[in-house]
Write a structure and sequence with these properties.
The protein has five helices and five strands, in the order ααβαβαββαβ. With about 170 residues, the protein is of the alpha+beta class. The chain has one domain: 3-Layer(aba) Sandwich (NADH Oxidase). Helix 1 packs across helix 4, helix 2 crosses helix 4 and helix 3 runs antiparallel to helix 5.
């Protein structure tokens, strides 16, 4: 039986999301960047605290500095931009949960806009978080969750089907 709901645009964007690590030289348009940020900030937030802080990075020197220092973010050296998802760690104990929801929204929005993106974690690794803190002189109360390189995909990436019925438990484990 065919699932008619799989054709709904929002669901298609979710199921099409993939990690893109190679980018063309094309710049990401300002309206698309704003859309990514709006989608990120539409995320749910515990007690509506919204502890997130987002850094848009277009500066080539800063992108290259992070690419050099972050072990799983080498693709920043060719990405035209990145969004760093941070949060005020004093706002709530679960800042990283809210920031994760922001990150996922940005990744899905990038897919819907024809962009490629990938989640490169800085949290919970102090040495990676320190890279971002030092490159951007973040205040003590602001910590990074991840760096999201964003750009137009340089090759045809395909999403992975991660649906596994053995991971589904109905009324039992």
């Amino acid at each position: 039986m065919e699932n008619k709901y799989l054709e709904i645009p929002a669901i298609k964007a979710i199921l099409s999301r993939k990690s893109v690590r190679r980018y063309t030289e094309s710049q990401v348009e300002d309206q698309k960047i704003e859309t990514l940020l709006r989608c990120g900030m539409a995320a749910p937030s515990g007690k509506n605290i919204q502890p997130w802080e987002l850094i848009v990075v277009k500066d080539r020197e800063k992108l290259n500095a992070m690419a050099e220092a972050l072990p799983y973010a080498k693709m920043l050296s060719e990405a035209p931009m990145a969004i760093i998802v941070c949060a005020d760690i004093n706002a709530c104990d679960y800042w990283y949960v809210d920031a994760s929801a922001v990150t996922e929204n940005i990744l899905i929005a990038a897919e819907a806009l024809g962009l490629g993106a990938v989640w490169t974690a800085t949290y919970p690794y102090p040495e990676r978080m320190d890279v971002v803190k030092n490159v951007f002189a973040l205040p003590e109360n602001v910590a990074s969750l991840c760096v999201i390189p964003v750009g137009y995909p340089a090759k045809d990436y395909q999403p992975r089907d991660k649906f596994k019925t053995e991971k589904i438990h109905v009324d039992k484990y």
